[in-house]
Amino acid sequence: MAHFQRRQFLRTVSALRAAPLVSIAQPPTERVYRIGCLEGGFPSTSKNNVEGLRQGLRDLGYVEGRNYVLDFRWGEGRNDRLAELAAELVRAHVDVIVTAGEPAIRAARQATTTVPIVMGAVGDPVGAGFAANLARPGGNITGVSNVAVEMTGKWLELLREAVPRLSYVAVLWNPANPTHHVFWKEAQAAARTIGIKVLGVEFSSPDDFERGFASMELERVDGLLVLPDPITASNRVKLAELMAKRRLPGIALFRESAEAGFLLSYGVSAFDNHRRAAAYVDKILKGAKPGDLPIEQGTKFALVINLKTAKALGLRIPQSLLTRADDVIQ
Asked: Model-level pTM?
């Protein structure tokens, strides 16, 4: 019996030696994409941009840390830092750069003509020279426009509706931001149509705000329009405090300003814009050329009214405006 079992064992070993080798295929390693994020502000002031992008990528099946990582660079309200930060992302070999606002987009474009750039928000991409046209931008830039330039007149109209006695509005703008020159011209034209006066108040850093508000007080303006810029976005709370001190009602683009204490905000959602920007990232990572992807314009606009600020200013917001508000901060 033992002899028979030994023969069976030897036959089995011989058969195994004669059998062809079968390789066990290893699952392919999933590529991890590096997505550069160039933000002009601070992490605390840009959280809706970041979370919108993350949500959009999640909706498309991406898992952070498994098949993509975000590589952040923060301008912290200093536009002069953006060029070097953009260059750092290019040196880090990111697959795509997501950014927002003309200063940051311009810095990214100057840093590279080959790495795809996706805009999460921009006022006038064609006027700024980022795209040949909206339908076919060309080059390495595409993304989402917040149609902010065309809204300048709407901001002044809404502020006038909230404050019927309004007659003289300061416009806080940054001459170093090329789009702001267009905003300022639009504000002047809209003011003539509405029948109010506007005062241009320039800034280049947060250090200019105190001086700017002093000039507003001297001129006795009765309202303020704050134009979108990384510097103003990073200093929303400070600006709201300066307005409260001088009892000035103010309006801005993003709802974060109303949350910080501005009387009104009207415009697209930063979160939604960046959620939509994720779809561009996905298409580019799958091989699409950014210059072939049409630039989308914002379609969801929200009016936010801060009633706490209205009460502090002694304002009674007209019911007609309250009923049109998408959100009211009590």
From this structure: 0.80
